[in-house]
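Course assignment 3, question 2. Fill in each field.
Student: A.L.
Task: Predict the tertiary structure for the chain below.
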Amino acid sequence: MDRMKELVELLNQAGQAYYQQDREIMSNYEYDKLYDELQQLEAETGRVLSNSPTVHVGYEAVNDLPKEAHESPMLSLDKTKDTAVLGDFIGSHKTLLSWKMDGLTIVLTYRDGMLSKAVTRGNGLVGEVITNNARVFQNIPLRIPFKGELVLRGEAIITYSDFEKINEEIEDVDAKYKNPRNLCSGSVRQLNNEITAKRKVHFFAFSLVQAENVDFNNSRENQFLWLKEQGFEVVEYKIVTRDNLEEAVQYFSEKIISNDFPSDGLVALYDDIAYGESLGNTAKFPRNAFAFKWADEQKETTLKEIEWSASRTGLINPVAIFESVELEGTTVSRASVHNVSIVKELELGIGDTIEVYKANMIIPQIAANLTRSGNLEIPKVCPVCHGDTVIKKDNDVEVLFCPNPDCQAKKIKSFSLFVSRDALNIDGLSEATLEKFISKGFIHEFADIFQLQKYKKEIVEMEGLGEKSYQRLSESIETARHTSLPRVIYGLGIANVGLANAKLICKELNNDMEQIQSADEERICAIEGIGPVIAKNFAEYFSNEHNLERFLRLLSCLELEVTEVTEDQKFAGMNFVITGSVNHFANRSEVKEKIEALGGKVTGSVTSKTNYLINNDVASNSSKNKKAKELGVPIIDEEEFIRMLED
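Answer field:
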């Protein structure tokens, strides 16, 4: 399994470099050699990992996630923060102590050695079917040696490192994800599994529910070891009794600091299956397992102020500023209070003595308010635009909101997105610079960015700018005038409309301004890959007269790339795969553009849906040629492809 994982990673890196970056990190000979080795290992073991290059899991969008009742209810665990209480539960029984991972619990079902079904925990009784998405998790085996019915449970998680990479690609601070668990939950429940695949979700098994006709000698550990043999990654565990519990807890408490995955505690599970099951359940908890939550280090400190931070969405979020304290090895002086409801619940007041801690040893939080003076006033005006605020109630939670559409905070964040790399890509307009220009009245709407030359004298005299900075900014703005419509649409900041969605919509509407401005919710929702939320937000944005006027003024400042839409769609409904070097085109990307302009689609792997494999080395024994021959997919060279274009 270790070698298979190593091969999958090496081959996927090579494939990504080759197909997405037009560079080679290994020769075709070396790639094919490793590919053949992986195929051989998969045949010998009967295991195939979900991200193996030997299989192609198609991307597919669904309209909804159907609900399904679990065969046996998924109960929560009783929990404690006291190792003595955990020790009393364990006693002299052999017990598996493992991570309590902080993600989304999933139930997998295998039949005839193949992944048959994946369902979320939901409310413990009914979950959502996410089989389509589970197939693109990073490490779920799609095929296993065991041919009977297998049901197991595990946790879907996104690592801290992948979470940080995803957030780094998001320019807008307010659009960044708050924590890996929330990102994982949304990723697992996507309607389009291409998004799930990009989020790099991992699965760790923690419980075997059923394995038809397999004898585990009454041992949970044997179940874990057997699951490993089948190709699953199992949550790390240690065998404990009360005698070595303290030592094991110490091990986990030290390791959590360097772990790349989120965990909010430990789980103790009796190894003796029959004994554990004989104990039954309470109304809420099973009696064969117990959860241990970290005893958070808490410190008393004094609340100095509440900082109200306005965002581009209009939400004004409270942040507690307190006297600095040392927690879990770092100095902290700030903690999010999240919303008005929590401010009221804690009865916060300036000068109060509060207890603070780091939730899961990471995120500073207020544990309690010891003095509860309640003298804090909720701001009646926005801290940025000084317009009247309102308190909104959403799912019984009160939040502070600035309803002013011209609030400067909304503008700064919106403009920051507009000038970001994936939108208009204008260097030199940081949030600090935008704030200066907005406060001076230079910028009121997006179109004003392209009229900044009117304020050259004032700009060059601003602190931190000057003649050279202005010149660089001016050149960047001129370059940004030449752009594409999807980038502009993305830069508008329409809720939930990313660059990929903007491209889909613009392509479907033929980059036609009239269609984009007049398309209703139903028309947008009919586009493959676009859901009802995005459709509603898009249609509402352009049905707003104020938005439309500003959009048209912006377009008057731009020179949009003309997307050539050819009437000849000879490749409509056809799938191509391109491999190897090309001679008559600049690169493979140019071939891809030609195919797409004629209505075709280019994919990275040869499947039964592939119509043609383009490879100048038609007679080679490359992995793609082999796959094409197996499936009866025609292999054509560049010359033949050009003849197809001319026919």
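Instructor remarks: Residues 2-20 form the longest helix (19 residues). The mean pLDDT is 86.
Grade: pending
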